[in-house]
Amino acid sequence: MQSIQDHYPPQFAHCFGCGPANPHGLHLKSFLEGERTVARFTPEMKFSGGYPGNVYGGMLASLLDCHGTASAAAFAYRSQGRTMGDALPPIRFVTGSLAVSYKKPTPLGAELLIVGSLSSLEGRKAVISLELSAHGEVCVTGEMTAVQFMPRTS
């Protein structure tokens, strides 16, 4: 099964967090599963935060950021009755805002589950609710407003 990011055309595949074409990136892969999106990621020790054994908060925000924009694209494709990777111009979103709430320390080396759900999709704006958990416990929540990227025509 291909991830949402696997459908990114080359000009959009360079993101450090989720771009499949970035040789130094994290290569986060998100999947549309029914009414939600799901990604899994296991952070290496190099992503240590200020407190030993836990993930750096910026890394956690990055995971929510990449998963959120991928989620917005997947939900937009579905709402338009389109298939990712079709011959039409790609649907891509950028972050308008991202509010992150750290609920508890997130352990290094544990598989993290990142889940996104669509709160609203109106015009070019999608609001995505996000949740990151480890060992079945919610560690981070977020809400993203993602805006559909429209290439300049000039």
UniProtKB/TrEMBL annotation:
<dbReference type="InterPro" id="IPR029069">
    <property type="entry name" value="HotDog_dom_sf"/>
</dbReference>
<dbReference type="InterPro" id="IPR006683">
    <property type="entry name" value="Thioestr_dom"/>
</dbReference>
<feature type="domain" description="Thioesterase">
    <location>
        <begin position="53"/>
        <end position="134"/>
    </location>
</feature>
<dbReference type="InterPro" id="IPR052365">
    <property type="entry name" value="THEM4/THEM5_acyl-CoA_thioest"/>
</dbReference>
<dbReference type="GO" id="GO:0016790">
    <property type="term" value="F:thiolester hydrolase activity"/>
</dbReference>
<keyword id="KW-0276">Fatty acid metabolism</keyword>
<keyword id="KW-0443">Lipid metabolism</keyword>
<keyword id="KW-0963">Cytoplasm</keyword>
<keyword id="KW-1003">Cell membrane</keyword>
<dbReference type="GO" id="GO:0006631">
    <property type="term" value="P:fatty acid metabolic process"/>
</dbReference>
<keyword id="KW-0809">Transit peptide</keyword>
<dbReference type="Pfam" id="PF03061">
    <property type="entry name" value="4HBT"/>
</dbReference>
<keyword id="KW-0053">Apoptosis</keyword>
<keyword id="KW-0472">Membrane</keyword>
<comment type="similarity">
    <text>Belongs to the THEM4/THEM5 thioesterase family.</text>
</comment>
<protein>
    <recommendedName>
        <fullName>Acyl-coenzyme A thioesterase THEM4</fullName>
        <ecNumber>3.1.2.2</ecNumber>
    </recommendedName>
</protein>
<keyword id="KW-0966">Cell projection</keyword>
<keyword id="KW-0378">Hydrolase</keyword>
<dbReference type="GO" id="GO:0016020">
    <property type="term" value="C:membrane"/>
</dbReference>
<dbReference type="GO" id="GO:0005737">
    <property type="term" value="C:cytoplasm"/>
</dbReference>
